[in-house]
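Q: Could you write out the predicted structure for this multi-component system? I'm mainly interested in how the pieces pack against one another.
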Amino acid sequence: MSEASQPGTKRTESDRLKKGGTFSSLMRRPEAGAFLVMIVVIAAIAFASEGNAFNPLGLKNNLSVIAQFGIIATGACLLMIAGDFDLSIGSMIGFAGMSMAMMLKWGLPFGLGEATPVTAFFFTLVMTLALGWLIGTIVVKSKLSSFIVTLAFLFFLRGLTEVCFRVINSSTQISGLPDYKEQSWFAYMFGGEAFGFVYDIWFWLGGNLNRAGNQWVTGLDARVVWWLLVAALAYVVLSRTQAGNWIFATGDNRESARANGVPVDKTRVSLFMFTAFCATLFAACQVFDTNTADAAKGNLKELEAIAIAVVGGTLMTGGFGSVIGVVFGAITFGLVANAVFFIPAIDGSYYRVFVGVVLLTAVFLNESVRKRITGGL
Amino acid sequence: MAEPLIRAEKLVKRFGPFTALNGIDLEIYRGEVHALLGDNGAGKSTLIKVLAGVHQPTEGQLYVEGKPVTFQSPRDATEAGIGTVYQDLALNPLMSVTRNFFMGRELTTGPQPFGLLKMDEMDRITHDEMVKIGIDISDPGQAVGTMSGGQRQTLAIARAIHFGAKVLILDEPTSALGQKQQMEVLKTIARVRARGDIAIIFITHNEVHSNLVADRFTFLALGEVIGKGTKEELKGKDIRHLMAGGVEMADLEQEIAAI
Ligand SMILES: Nc1ncnc2c1ncn2[C@@H]1O[C@H](COP(=O)(O)OP(=O)(O)O)[C@@H](O)[C@H]1O
Ligand SMILES: [Mg+2]
């Protein structure tokens, strides 16, 4: 008699599912790989920069880049989980930045008079959300791959941005706008500072000093708050709400989701609007921080957003992914992108070498996760 | 005998010049397993697609509990209590058992569609509904992709019943499974039958399977009914002969021998 068929130990199908402890179930989470990579990168950069990457100014600068990555990668992640790509994110950033700066410099369209930060932002947001809706609707109705439709919009929006600049502004840059964040609380929300109290406490505790012995850094960039808000919101929506279940269902098997009554088309179109929203947020933070705009802004950002989402554990094929993983991925990418400023000995182009290696590794890792879950299908 | 739950009267379905169904009469009764048998291309799938609202009949009439009905879409059929478990089962492999069970019909608190999922309640219902028809899943958070074919079948059936199916249509539920899992599915069918309130339409090629669980049989060939009856009525008749679409086995043996 074999061991398995001893009386009283009748095996059932569900016994075959191996159950591990807390650690092994943590390691099986989609963000596990991204977490490990992040820890290694933080340690390596802290060591190589002799801590400078995490001194008061280093932290501020790093988090500024991390937040930028994080905002757009969160949008890309939700969209990818639903089974689509958006290659127009970078061009959308350029378009939104152009639109806001142009209104601030030349006034609102249709002769509606002078623009304020509030009106410039909302006019722009209405346009970008409409574009997101248009992209999504074309993808859904035409049944074409979102890859090709958004590739078309990558070119279309970038070209449109440049044309608008030249026709209205006769230059592809705007600089020297008034410092709106000094006068307008609304502009300050995007371009100002936040978490000043952390730096105040740091100062009281005896750190955060400049050469003259005064407080050195006064706060983090406001976009860090937006990143945390967007990530927290996306996390709750994805993992705790009905909309989140629709996103997973849409990306996993679209036809079966439809057959069960999931509003697949609405879900997809909404997510294209969400990536457009994230791009607009990215642009608003940039415009109100630097008071400039440039036709090349956001270039290649769509690819970085997708790379971060993949490194965060999101499957290219949809149906699976994690917002927390994207947070880890954004931290990793932001630190490495900025590393050249803290480690003078290295060449900035190593950033792209790193991205290539990490991306490929992540894709293999994700694929093995997918195989394990689907039983090798 | 009581009023049938579903009655089809002289159903005709044409695809252009091709007549897929040619005047089908069918009665489905509560608490019974109704085996729909016939060769490939006989029209079984077309017939159940008409019942499920996927196709509209060219001629003929459907009655649900005696009332004439016209289904414009699968949704109409679902609302009338006709639940179809398709061959692909409409399950999502990467999602958990519970998330699959409630896909598109989630229980939430708060404003749609951003209402928070009542995960505990959904887990409990999923577990209980599956236990009722014979599978005790230990972890409702398990991904469906890690379940066996038989378990998935049970999940799809439990889901259809929970969301109000009075008639379950199973299109070749055993065809893609191994021996042991085929038996699991047959047991599941038997358990659903034991509830007494649900009718099952069971399409199969397997004579042994249909004999094990079916109460009533309908044989199709070339879009027409070539035989029907309860298990008792069909006793002694050559079921295999009917299943082969009326071809005599003896003829077949001769033909093969002649090659
Ligand atoms: N949508 C359709 N258009 C044209 N012919 C169809 C269509 N669906 C089924 N048929 C034809 O109807 C016949 C019956 O098919 P089907 O109902 O699938 O048979 P079964 O399920 O019994 O094997 C087949 O000859 C098939 O080619
Ligand atoms: Mg068929």
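A: Regarding packing and overall arrangement: Chain B has a mean pLDDT of 88.
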